[in-house]
C-alpha cells in the first residue's frame, strides 16, 4: 500500500473490510468460526483479534476501535463476538458494525429448549486447566512428543493410534494435533528403506497392528516437500519418493493396514478422518 | 449405568441430552463453538460428531441418526451444524432437533452487507493444504519441535518468541499450540538450577532478550504436576519447587522479562495472552 490516497478523507473503495474477533476469553471460537464463514467470500479482510474483553472498560475500548475502523474504511466492520455477559455484549452492539453475536443468537433458544438458564460463565473452548479432560490432553501431548518419529517402543500399549508412513508424509503434525485437539495418544513411526528391504513392519509394531493407521502422499508432492528441506538430495529425488511410496503402500496393503492420502488434506482433515476410523472400531 | 430401567420404553427423564456436531468438513468449528455454548449449561451431554457430511446420502443418514436419538432420549437433540451447501443443510433441518445452523444464520446478513454472494465452498478452518498460511503453520510446528526444551541454539534469530520457565511450567504445550494454531515459531528453554547458581540466563539467549516470554506457576501446583511424573523425588518436592520458582521469578524480574502465571490457565489462554503481548510490540 505505497500509493497513499491523495484525499485524506474516507477512501471510497477501501481494499479491505476490517473484521473483529471480540471475546471475553481467548477468541479462538470467534476466530475459528469467523474464518470458516469468511472463506466463503472472495474478499480481502483485515483481521483484528480482541481477546479477554472481560470488563466494561475493555468493552468500551473495543467499541471505540470498531468505530475507528469504520471511520477509516468507510464500510461497516464485521464483528464476530462471543461475549457471555449480556452487559458487555450490549456495549459492543453499539459499535458501528455488522454484528455476528454467536452467544446471544444461540443461547436464548437453548435456554428455552433445555428449560434452564445459562450460567453465563465465560466460555472456555477446552475446559479449565484443572479438569480431567484438560489433564488428558496434556498427557496426550507429552505422550505424542515422546513417541514421535519412532523415538520409543515403550508403552505402545497405551497408544490410541500409531501412525506410520514415509518421512514427511504428515505423521508428526497429525499426531500432535490429535493429542492437542482431542486428547488422543498418537505415536508415530517412520517407514524407512530398511523396512522395505526386510519387507516387514518395524518389529516393535507387530503386536499393535490393529492400532496402526497409515499416511501416504503423492510422490510429486513428497518430492516437493523434501526438496524444501534437502534440495537436490537423493532423499528428495522424485524417483526415490516414488520407490518409497510404492513400497510403503504395498506393505500397508499386505499387512491389512488402513491408510489415507495426506496430499491435499489439512492436518485438521487428516486428524478428523483418523478419529472417525478409530471410533468406528470401538464404541461411539 | 448398571441400573437398567425396568421399562424398556422411552425413559422419561434421560440423564443426558444428545448433541450432534454436523459438518461438511472436519466439524471442528461446530464442535469448538458448541462446547463454548454448552459449558454455560450445567447438564450432561452425550456428544456425537458427524464430520464430512458432504453428500445427500450422508445428510439423510445423519438425519436418521438425529431422529433415532430423539426416539431414545425422548428429548430433542441439539444439532450444531456447519453445512455450507443449502441442500444438505435443508435435509438436516428436517431432523427432529433444536437446530443451531451456524452458516445459514450468518451468511445471509453477510452477503447483504458485503454486496456479494458467498461462494458456498466448504469452509476450512485453516485453509487448504497448499496455501501459504498452511505452509507457515507446518514450518512453525517443525521449528517449535526442533527448539523444544532448549534442544538447539541454532536459528533462534528466526523465533517469533522464546518461552522460558522451570521444568513443567507449561512451555512445551504452549509452544506447540502457538505453532499449530497461529503459525508462530516458538522456541522454549528450561530455566534449570545451574542457571540460578550462575544467576544468568542461558548464554545462548542473551542476544534475543526482547523475544523472551516467561512462564511461572504456583509452587504447590508445580509440585503436584512433578509428583505425577516422579513421585517422591527431590525434583517434585514442594521445597525444591519453591526454590526454583523464586529463583526463576527473581531472574526474570532482574532481566526485565515479561512473564505470566500458567497456574489456572489453559494452553489456549496462555497462548492467546502471549500472542497479544508479542503483537503489541510490533504492528497490529
From TrEMBL, chains A, B:
It is an enzyme of class 2 (transferase). It catalyses: [pyruvate, water dikinase]-phosphate + phosphate + H(+) = [pyruvate, water dikinase] + diphosphate; [pyruvate, water dikinase] + ADP = [pyruvate, water dikinase]-phosphate + AMP + H(+). Pfam families: Kinase-PPPase. GO terms for molecular function: ADP binding; ATP binding; phosphotransferase activity, phosphate group as acceptor; protein serine/threonine kinase activity. ADP binds at residues 165-172. It comes from the Bacteria. Its EC number is 2.7.11.33, 2.7.4.28. Keywords: Kinase, Nucleotide-binding, Serine/threonine-protein kinase, Transferase. InterPro entries: Kinase-pyrophosphorylase, PSRP. Bifunctional serine/threonine kinase and phosphorylase involved in the regulation of the phosphoenolpyruvate synthase (PEPS) by catalyzing its phosphorylation/dephosphorylation. Belongs to the pyruvate, phosphate/water dikinase regulatory protein family. PSRP subfamily. HAMAP family: PSRP (MF_01062). This is Putative phosphoenolpyruvate synthase regulatory protein. It comes from Glaciimonas immobilis.
